[in-house]
Structure formats: structure tokens, C-alpha cells
Write a structure and sequence with these properties.
mainly beta, globular
Length: about 130
Amino acid sequence: MVMDGIPLVLKYTLPAEELYKPFWEGLKRGEVLGTRCRRCGTIYFPPQRDCPKCMVSDMEWVDVGKTGELMTYSIVVQKPQGFENYGDYTVGIVRTEKGVNLMCWVIGTPKVGAKVVLTSDGNRVLCEVRT
């Protein structure tokens, strides 16, 4: 049985202010950047303005890593609003060599434990599975 649904329209305001400019510029260069607290050394992805661990606002931009391991993944068949025109795609959680966990679009055949290389298409974080 098929039922018509009520369309759900959501509008998000994303931080595109000057503070996050290095993040967006990094993605355009194929780099994945996060922030690191200068006091405690904790690396955050997505980037944070303040360190919730030691409650300071002394952050610096750092590369979160170039390689990692695919911890888990999900193949998206039923698309959320705004992604209806995409084919099926895979998202995954990667732990980088610097110990940062992040979500990315998986390129290639996913397998838990697979080694991946992080990059970007200019707008989103990608992880390419290495065989």
C-alpha cells in the first residue's frame, strides 16, 4: 500500500561567518580542517568556536588527518528532503589517524575496518576506500 505523505520543509541557517571561512576554504582545496584547543590540545570536528572541555575560546585551525579507518557506514536508499535527486549513496563514520571521528560520504565499496583517504569535492567531506 502506498500513501501520500505531507511534504516537510525545513530551513537551516549554517554558520558561514568569517569565523568558519578557513573550514570552507579548506574544503575547496580538498582539505578537511577542524579546530584544536590551544590549552588542552583536543581536536574538534566539526570545528568549534570554544572548547567545551576546558571552557576557553583559544582555538587554532588544524588538519584532522588525511587517512583513517571506516568504523561504520550506511547505504542511503530512502533519501531525506533535498536529496531526492541523488542516487543511492553511502555515508560513514571514519576515525582519522589523529583520532578524530567524522562523518563523510564514502566513495568506493565500503567495508568496516577499511583504510580510507579523506578529501573533499569542495562542499562535503569524502572518504575514498583503499583496497
